[in-house]
Amino acid sequence: MAEEMSRRERRRQERKEKKQEQKRQQQAQKKKKEFLTYTGVLAVIVVLLAVGYAIAQNAEVKTDDSGATPDLQNMSEDELLSYNLQSHQNAARHIHAQLDIEILGQDRSIPAQIGIGPNTMRVVHTHDNSGKIHVEPPVPVEVTLGNFFSVWGKTFNSSCVFDYCENATHKLSMYVNGDVNQQYGDKVLREGEQISLIYEKTG
Fold it and tell me: Which of these, 17, 97, 119, 153, is most buried using a 10 Å CB contact count?
């Protein structure tokens, strides 16, 4: 009788252990499935990010507001100034020049974001109001101070800056790195140059 009870007890114990083992296996399978699902989702995200980056790097840049893509090597000045760089990565060169303007003894601030707007970045522009001009053409061409004023929408030539023009009692002077310069709007912007425009009384 005792032996029969012992066999029954062992069988119950075996069944119990078998159920526990099945439960552990089910839990392990569930965790494995969750891990594989998570890994798969992560892999898809990585692939999508990689594809998106590749597309962004190789996407054709629309070069003007009409959406046309002119011949970069043979652009007119108007096409150059209307070119939408969109990103610094599309620039063939990156030059900085400093511009200071003094009108009748008062420093004139050069606004931030000249040549920059929603989804737009011109080949010559500013990021802040420090007077630093950024020159970033899509091909290695020269950009002038006059080009910058054109993008800015302000008057500048050998006689006038803004609405201030030379007359019998006032003159406009231009200096590059401290030296008198007579190029005015034709001055090609060079890396590290300090350009000063001074409109003052002659007397």
Answer: 97
